[in-house]
Model the fold of this input.
Amino acid sequence: MREKIELKPQEGPQYDFLASEADISIYGGAAGGGKSFGLLLDPLRHYDNKEFGGMIFRSTGVQVKNEGGLWDESMKLYPLLGGTPREFVSEWRFPSGMSLSFGHLEYDKDVLNFQGAQIPWIAFDELTHFTEYQFFYMLSRNRSTSGVKPKMRGTCNPDPDSWVKKFIRWWLDEKGEYPIAERSGKLRWFIRVNDEIVWADSPEEIYEVYGRGPEIIPKSVTFIAAKLEDNKILMEKDPAYLGNLLALSRVDRQRLKDGNWNARVSAGSLFRREWFPVVEAVPGGWIQSVRFWDRAATKPNEKNKDPDWTRGLKLYKYPDGTFCVVDLKSIRDTPGQVENLIKNVAAHDGTAVRIKSQQDPGSAGVSEGEHFIKMLAGYDVHTETMSKDKVTRAKPVSAQSEGHNIKVLRAAWNDDFFDELENFPDPSSKDDIVDVLSGAFNELAGGLSLADIL
Done:
């Protein structure tokens, strides 16, 4: 006899999400709140309805099949109900004939692939990664003849610049920072009037103002907030996950651990002078070292009085997981003078110090990278093309600096070092020092990827 398996949500926000009768339910807040499992579980109540079907969207096709992502998690869950995966089309088929597909909407135009579609259940994982246009276009595809009320579902982490924040604003506090606990799961209704969303506490309020008619169809919405503490199973199985969140930079920690919808990167939010202990001498006992270069080759002139700097930062790593910035070389000069400096510094550092440099993308960058490596023959030298934006690359070293784990040797270059870090990411300020600090740190320590915790 086949063993009976019980699939059910955890008590709290996950249960409230699955129990919601709202046309649109958004399950959001901090990371680790059980949102993804809730999203996968929600359509299974209709697995025996052959007329029912659904679709779960991620922003890109790569995200759909990421290791440990939704597709991987569905492989653990859906076979329990007889689901059969069709991996080449990212679709599940159940014995009744019910299907559930995984797709992506990378560009606004991608929604046109669903013209004429009728999808009873539509879900967006990480809703803030989608545009408002994509969401509301797919709402027009949310139709059902299966006997099941059509529903839209979404999960999200806080993003202060997303349209989602404005859409759920009523469920947040006066400052728009944190969800109001008493409003979590409460229903509101809206209609669009001249492309503007009009909200009300009940359909009757809308009818009183706009009357009843074929074009006046209020849609119900709810927002359900969750935090890591609400996911008891994850807390028991992986207690170290909280440590992952605590290791994030301050801004990401406020968003992903605390669920703050206002936390954003601004000058002074990633680096502060007081976070870096300044030492009078280099501590002994370091175990690894790297000199990271961000190269430029322009001398100040009448047309360009403030060109970028060539910067070379030297970083030591210690057995206890701390680091020390021991040197910063800077120059704005001709290509020949820049090369002379780099070779002289390498000779002074010695072959024990690893050398790394940023490489611009494209064929010109490849050529420059090859020249850089040949120029430093005999040293442990490498180049790297940066695929992530500057802020993302800076977040791991930001988190460690806030924990006072990165010392700085007292030297004449300290003021330039701290001034640039504190002004980052102000677009009017230079960021060469931030780049070499991030590059050196990520070379020695690696960085905690946001994909590990979302």
Observations:
- The chain has 15 helices and 17 strands.
- Residues 13-249 form a domain with the Rossmann fold fold (CATH 3.40.50.300).
- The chain has two domains: 13-249, 265-452.
- Residues 447-454 have pLDDT under 50 and may be disordered.
